[in-house]
Write a structure and sequence with these properties.
By secondary structure, this protein is α/β, with parallel strands linked by helices. The protein has a single domain, classed as TIM Barrel. Helices cover about 40% and strands about 15% of the residues. The chain has an 8-stranded parallel sheet, with helices on both faces. The chain starts with 16 loop residues before the first strand and ends in a 17-residue tail after the last helix.
Length: about 280
């Protein structure tokens, strides 16, 4: 298989689960037909609901609209921390409007990213504080992006007062950071990175997370799980991460898939049933 080709669609999970964070527009699924096709492929692997996430204002507008195209799709809106230089009233006003939409279930992804230098730490921190307040005002979960900023992210949440529900998307910390998040009651969401052979610190962290604080995601089109690392990712690949987490945590695939689904249903208030599309034939690829 070429590195440009998507991985094969796996056999369906024995119980359904949810991809708690993806970017369907970045996957190329930008029209209703393409979105439905991607969701069909996901359903055929047991991924029965998907949250597609914005990273800039244009993407946020698209997410809020796309989430109305199919009952299996939900949205999250925010400005990615690397997009926050010059974050102003226009962006704030638009995001407030979009975050209130019924099919938008979270404010995110927001947080801090000290790996890239597209936005200054000051701009990121100001925007992060504003997004924390927005999540509290609209009563929706906060979806955190945290890259090489563990201490500052946790300190900001403490200082501002975290919303009722906080999710660390694509959790990237070690066991110490995981314990701090767990003790604070935050949810930790794991992407394909947890299956990478060199991710020992992340794998140690993943073993610590209680079932009730565990989520699974793809962050597609990035971070495709082992053994397909480097190939294009899509929501159906969350099934591979579920299998990897089950082995890592010494649990059954059913237990991990069900925990992740139940947590997603609870915190994002999703309307998902256990039989939604599981094992159905994939739509056009």
């Amino acid at each position: 298989m070429s590195r440009q080709e998507r991985p094969p669609i796996p056999q369906p999970l024995p119980v359904p689960t949810v991809d708690a964070h993806t970017h369907l527009d970045a996957c190329g699924a930008t029209t209703p037909d393409l979105v439905r096709a991607a969701l069909g492929r996901a359903a055929s692997a047991g991924i029965v609901a998907v949250i597609t996430v914005a990273d800039d204002l244009d993407s946020a507008r698209w997410v809020a609209d796309a989430a109305t195209w199919d009952e299996r799709l939900y949205g999250a809106v925010a400005l990615h921390p690397t997009r926050t230089e010059g974050f102003g009233e226009t962006e704030r006003s638009e995001l407030e409007r979009l975050a209130a939409a019924d099919r938008v279930v979270a404010v995110g992804e927001t947080g801090l990213d000290y790996y890239w230098d597209y936005a200054s730490p000051k701009a990121q921190q100001e925007a992060f504080r504003w997004h924390i307040d927005l999540a509290k005002r609209v009563g929706k979960p906060l979806m955190i992006h945290n890259r090489e900023a563990h201490d500052d992210v946790l300190a900001t949440l403490d200082a501002e007062g975290a919303p009722e529900t906080v999710m660390f998307h694509c959790f990237s910390g070690d066991a110490d950071v995981a314990r701090r998040c767990i003790d604070a009651g935050y949810l930790l969401s794991f992407a394909g990175t947890v299956t990478f052979r060199n991710a020992r610190a992340l794998q140690e962290a993943a073993r610590l997370v209680p079932d009730e604080q565990l989520l699974v995601e793809t962050d597609a089109p990035f971070l495709t799980p082992h053994p397909f690392r480097g190939r294009p990712n899509e929501p159906y690949c969350a099934a591979y991460t579920v299998e990897g987490l089950a082995e890592l945590r010494g649990q059954s695939v059913e237990a991990v898939a069900e925990a992740a689904r139940r947590n997603a249903e609870r915190v994002f208030r999703l309307r998902v049933t256990e039989n939604d599309g599981v094992g159905s034939s994939p739509e056009s690829s």
